[in-house]
Fold these 2 entries.
Entry 1:
Amino acid sequence: SEKMQRKQSSKNSKQPLQVHHSNQTDLSAWRKGGKPDPEKSLQNPTSHNSQANESEQDSFEQAVSYFEKVQSPVSLRKNEVLQKHLATVESTALEKGLPPEAFDVLLNVALSGKFADAVNTRLLKSLIPASVIPESSLVSSVSWLCVSKCSGSIQLLFIRWVISMFDFIDHKDQLHALYGFFFSFLQDEKMCPYVCHLLYLLTRRESVKPFRIRKLLDLQAKMGMQPHLQALLSLYKHFCPELVSITLSGRMKTYFKNSEGPWKAAISAIRRRNQKKSPVFQPLLLGTTQHQSRKRKWNTQLILPASSASTSNLADVKDKNSDLYNISKSFPVEQLQTFSQLLQNIHHLELPSQMGSVLTHPLLLHYMNCIKDESIYLRLHYWMGQTLQEECTWCVVDSSQYEEEFKDFLEIVHKAECFLQEGFSSCEEFLYRSLPFWDGFCCRSQVLRLMTWIPLSSFSEMKSYLYGPLAQLFFTSSLYFKCSVLESLKELLQNWLNWHMIELGSESDSQNHSLNTTLSGLVNVVAELIHFVGRISAIALQLENNVTFLLYFILDFYETVCDIYLRYNLPLLIMPPAGVFYPALLSMDSVSLNQLCYIMYRYRTNLVAAKENEMIKKKVLQFQFSSQTYQEYNQYLIAMVGCLWTSNAFQKDIHPEGLRLDEEVLKKTRVKDFKNSFNIVYHPALMGYALLFLQQAWPDDNTFNFSLIKGRKWNWYLEYLYAQGLKGLKLFIESSISRVSLVS
């Protein structure tokens, strides 16, 4: 095109890189890790290390100068000078990275076709930045793609390099202006997946045009449902849903191939060396005012990029009224500093290409909460899903050394979920894929925290992907891990119930039918979670010999379950299994017994409220509890009253897994007065209180005769127990014992 020809002519006429004059100073400062000080150089003798650095610097400058001046094609095999300079560029790139001034020369050489593909490939693989990559270098190099000077494999490698180094490009405006040029490369089947990825990073709302949508649909009809095409179409549909009428798959996966292979390890190695060698030298990476960069590439995504149009130049750009940049219609997110700015520009924000930076920006998280733009979640999902898959330390070989960094990343994701009060679907998919390979130790607390924000899913998915692998780890791990899992599942249940309350409040009366359908699905999923926790809890208590520490976390879970109907307005009540109820009832710890009493009190309150609502038909759409729920509650109630109050649990307990025993069997135990073994005086969890009560009531009696606690003393003893903080016991006795007495 004429535009590209003009760029080509301007490229040929522009000034060469002055490696021996002005740019030599820049390269020297870059090589030494700071600005040169001539006075200090004269005063201090040159050490051996500085001489070596200067020698390396001179060699690199000579290599850049050589590649800039070479004109005719040169063979690699017969040219020792070329081999030497090429090796110098490669070693410099691997050791420290290349300065910004070198990219213009090396990119032009690699794409101009002056050398064989073997040389061009090595040059492109050596283009590793020490700080940033000038956008002008990329625009200049793109012009070579128009004149077909380089082979298709070099063009493909160049596109992959742009994708991998996208976060290091200092500005993006001119690249956005080349959107149509990159779009034309979709015709090439080999380049299509990577071009889609690059277009995905560059796409803005104004990039979506009907002719581009038609082209993508034609390619999809020709190639089939390719993931890269579907990703770009999904983004187009979220920007302009009225233009994309086809239905796209809701279940996402990794849509783009990994483009970072040749450069990822080198970038990480450079950052590690630079951070260890000198605290002064720090690569600019994506922003000059942010915290120091970390090692892995995902961390560069968490920092806002350098502004695509600097503040000092914004006025000039606006004055030009350039259709190329269209700055006046958007507010660069890099300038977003205050909440008032967010409110003033909330409909004009231009989010960064690297969506990971949204996770660490509170104002952008506010924006996600206020503006329900599905394209934001879509782009964040793509990036986060790929990052989690590539950086997972127990799924990727030789990545254990980065465990601390992966922990930090998972912490950032979890904090963002807490801020938004909703989970990311990409985290859900990551958990489903990685849990079967997880050992339960690596990043334990972070993984369990992510588990608490799993979005509502169908039970079939959770049963196979979550409950199955989690149960295997649960039964074979330590007591502490079991308690941590139970705590996470309790928080997951609470998050689901809170989500239901929010959705219930936002529904209108005209949506009762759809609400009923949604409510039915929610009830089923929540019920299966509660049943799952009940099963693993009963087995865990057997494995751990009914240890009190584990029992506390189990009962803490059921404190939420027993109040679901009244507190969360969800028509569901599920009693704990007998393997949980009876260990708590017979526990030797007063805290566990008190917890159980409070839980039974809240079950009674919820069941009575549900029965009253059924009687008066307060609601048109009313879920009725099954008779089995009431029956199971009554069985547990009889067992508790028989133990704590009437001392006839061994005779009256009617639960199939209960305490009922024949009197002949009880006599063989040779326990005196076995009927009273579990009332509020003799119960192992309360006997300590009874002993202290006897000491206060009869200070001169050293026989500790518990039979003295009866009649009026029984009531005094009850008041004494209540005064010790056993509020659950008090609520249970006052609500259930009197009622049972009246009935009998």
Entry 2:
Amino acid sequence: LGLALCAVSGTAFLYHDYCVIGAGPAGLQVAYFLQQARRDYIVFERSHAPGSFFALYPRHRKLISINKQYTGKSNNEFNLRHDWNSLLSHDRRLLFRRYSRDFFPHADTMVRYLEDFASLLELRVQYNTAIIHVTLERNGQAWNGHYFLLTDQDRKNYKCSSLLVATGTWVPNVVNFPGSEYVEGYETVSINPEDFAGQTVLILGRGNSAFETAENILGVTNFIHMVSRSRVRLSWATHYVGDLRAINNGLLDTYQLKSLDGLLEGDLEDLAIVKDKKGKLHITLRFYLENRNISAGIDSITLPQDELDNFATRAPYDRVIRCLGWKFDFSIYNRSLRMMPGKGNIKKYPQIKPSYESRSTRGLFVLGTASHSVDFRKSAGGFIHGFRYTTRAVHRLLENRHHGVPWPSTVYPITQLTNSIIKRVNEASGLYQMFSVLADIILLRENATAFEYLEEYPTGVLAELEMQTGRKAPNGLFVIIMEYGRNFSGADKDVFYYNRAVGEAQHAWQSNFLHPVIYYYKRLPTEREMKLRPPEWPLPRPDAIHHIVEDFLTDWTAPNAHILPLRRFLENCLSTDLRSFFAESCFLFAFTRQKLPPFCQQGYMRMQGLVGSEGLRRHAVQAGLLQDYTLRDFSDDRPPDSHDRSRDQLLRDQVILVRPLQHLVNAKDE
């Protein structure tokens, strides 16, 4: 995978098939997959080490991504459900729990982890390289009809066929209003609580960075007020990990228990700040300053309390701190790439498709936090424990598109359908973390004799499945995803109400907590059907749907509550019998039925299956699954062991009958 040198218009370019901008978690994750596939790639990182964002943020150095050491299980895939920091790799040394035992780890530990991830796996990262300009060069021979041309701070030039942007969102959100020059930014404000002793503080914003800042100074300030345009959103109510987490919400206690601190709602663009001669900051409204000179002095400016003497923010503040989060850096992209911001509450992210490819430029994919517009406020795609899976999905799409490597899949006989689904919903971490966004796909073979299992495919591009994966779906499919209840999540929801959980299988469709949902389609949904799907539905209306009832332990292995209803649903969809049978039952069916169940046809009739034992046989008889064919001893003069010999002879006779019987059944089928 040597370095290629090419020239365009007299300018030398270093060529790679894949260029990755940013060596944060997403950049390193895609580099790992590219390296495992032996692809030609390079990662550009502006800093001297990976994960430079975590070298500064969060300012108070405590991550809010959980690091659960113990789950009671040794299944590595299951344990990733509760490990929100590890990247995916084959190296067991690179599990985050080996770096920290803290439930909420220190940010410096993340920096060290990412450094080890890059070095131990020998990822090809070029440090101290800031890409300052990206443009296109049209070329019909290129993979996507154009090449991407990149320029760094030293005016070195690079050329690649596919561009993977993993820069995250790192440009601070700033609101400009009269007096905003008096506002301190989260990125530079002091983190020493003593600097705030005896002060009155106003915080602009209501996310985790705002509450993290408040938590740090809660015990030393006179009081803290927090203002934002929207009400506080608690993550336990919205089930979105980007909303306010319990670890930071101490100010909610002091507000509701009337200990001076408080929360206010208002549009920040309507505010204005005026500084008095003592250096105190007064909050007023922008329209009071219309046609007035803000520098003329506070005495000549009307303040809200002049007209409303109990105005909430009438007390002056010593400091105003801006904690409004970050946005994507669009500045380095030439207009030819048409990298446009989203609309509404996703305007801080670039516009991308559900496949994570730019809406305007083929071959440009956005990874990591910057790709969160696909599932903003819906799932975990903006965080490591979510985008490690979406990054893997993008890599699989690229492998199929550029290298003819189909999406990984496994083919099983139809008798394993129920078991395959139960196994995945109980251990798969990608389905669990990226609920409603990534799905397992089951492609049925002709006559439903077998199926092909694809893991963690993006639901938003289900209509494009055949093109994106290289797999065919002519005979129908099942789609397995995880969902919360339709009306259970929201900033105004009471998620602790009495009878909030469902326990009976017949009411599974009313489940509120995260649970598996299986959609059945007789044919692949079309693009039009995807666009016209019901509001808040991740998929179009299926031909049949099944909810596996929510479980307090998230353990969907109960025979009656979970497995039996699922099996019957699958049987109804496929018009077949998916039960497992003892050899005696298959033996009987062969003489009494025109068509054998798949388990007998694919197992017993092919001389396949497990050898039974006396204990298993006795259990089956007691459970009513088998008749008791034990031969009774009515003769007093028969030897003591003749009973056992008679039973063994019967079993041998049945085994001897299997092979000619198989020809008999085949003849009947013909």
